Amino acid sequence: MGELDFQKHVQYIVSVEKKKDSFEALVMEHLRMNGAYWGLTTLDLLHSIDVVDKEEVISWMMSCWDADSGGFAGTVGHDPHLLYTLSAVQILALFDRLDVLDIDKLSSYVVGLQNEDGSFSGDGWGEIDTRFSYLAICCLSLLRCLDKINVVKAVEYIVSCKNLDGGFGCVPGGESHAGQIFCCVGALSITGSLHHVDRDLLGWWLCERQCRDGGLNGRPEKLADVCYSWWVLSSLIMIDRVHWIDKSKLTEFILNCQDRENGGISDRPDNAVDIFHTYFGVAGLSLMEYPGLKPIDPAYALPINVVNRIFFGKS
């Protein structure tokens, strides 16, 4: 199994940014803001965020801000969306530079995406999904602007997406999925509404996601995937049921997904690595208190010292 190769993963993340003209970079261009968040947060968890030029990153980020709407795009010249807006806020939180934002304009953009039933659209085109409820609630909370939305209705909508198995779907009646469960549990945690969750029922559904190889899947009958090390674990921690899975077997699964030569983590052993799974693998290990990693907050998906700085003024 070996250990987590801190330095190789730092080198991999830095190398990804330098390959802007590669096929992988071009097909992921629309997600570049998310990729920046995944990479930078991983570097911070590895105690290595200082390897990047923060001012250069902030300058690029602000070129992705849409001054008309107040939201952020995934890359320069694209349309704004909640997905990229939260990633931008999280990156600036990492850098302790939320001061560069027009918080009134940005928060108004997020507030304007709440619908009458309490749900949120991802952007001006109107798609509704509980992912967007989490994005909006997390974003506004980090900006200390959560009181600008109708929190009661937002919570009611999320609860309306709860299923008989204890899980949550993307809309009322939607299939329970670990990614959606994280979004709903995370939003309920941030708003102080976890009493709506049946912890034992949901905890059982989530711990059943552990496969024979130790990894976690997103729903029944699927293969294990490193990214669910985050979605499932963080949810279990928020509902205080993380002791229901075998952490040592999950740790072994994640470590076996490392590229020992070039760094990076893949979805499962021997597959190609990417920045997405590298982040979720390292974040999952952080949740399990892997030695040498910064601890990460399960609701805000940011290092705990960053969250403490925002809410308590201390690192």
From TrEMBL:
Keyword Ion transport: no
Highest rank taxon of the organism: Eukaryota
Sequence intervals crossing the membrane: none
Keywords linked to the UniProt accession: Metal-binding, Prenyltransferase, Repeat, Transferase, Zinc
Cofactor: Zn(2+)
Record domain Prenyltransferase alpha-alpha toroid: where: 4-301
Gene Ontology BP terms: gametophyte development; root development
Catalytic activity: geranylgeranyl diphosphate + L-cysteinyl-[protein] = S-geranylgeranyl-L-cysteinyl-[protein] + diphosphate
Signal peptide: none
GO cellular component, as recorded: Rab-protein geranylgeranyltransferase complex
Cofactor binding comment, as recorded: Binds 1 zinc ion per subunit.
Gene Ontology MF terms in the entry: metal ion binding; Rab geranylgeranyltransferase activity
UniProt keyword Signal, yes or no: no
Entry's EC annotation: 2.5.1.60
Function description: Catalyzes the transfer of a geranylgeranyl moiety from geranylgeranyl diphosphate to both cysteines of proteins with the C-terminal sequence -XXCC, -XCXC and -CCXX. Required for male fertility and root tip growth.
Family classification: Belongs to the protein prenyltransferase subunit beta family.
Quaternary structure note: Heterotrimer composed of the alpha subunit RGTA, the beta subunit RGTB and REP; within this trimer, RGTA and RGTB form the catalytic component, while REP mediates peptide substrate binding.
Protein name: Geranylgeranyl transferase type-2 subunit beta
Gene source species: Apostasia shenzhenica
Lineage of origin: Eukaryota, Viridiplantae, Streptophyta, Embryophyta, Tracheophyta
Gene assigned in the entry: FTB
